[in-house]
Amino acid sequence: SLFKQLNKNIDKFKLVNIKSINSEFREGFLSESPYDLIFIDNPLEKFPKNIYDQLNSNNGRMIMIDKINEDFGKGVLITKNKEKI
User: What gap in Å lies between CA 1 and CA 31, rounded to an integer?
Assistant: First the structure.
């Protein structure tokens, strides 16, 4: 239901240049990479290298939500510049 709501909001706000993907996020979506921005709202302690490899080498960014507890989370921004994370 959250994925359906996401797509409704993308349409409602007429957002463009966005691809919403509902699949196993640990794999990423290699066929359309590299990405300028990857947003993952299901945190992991360590992301597989293939996710980092899908970021644009020139300031590609990944935003993830890190769950602190049941009530709180924090946003984490990861930037890739050339091959450095």
Answer: 25
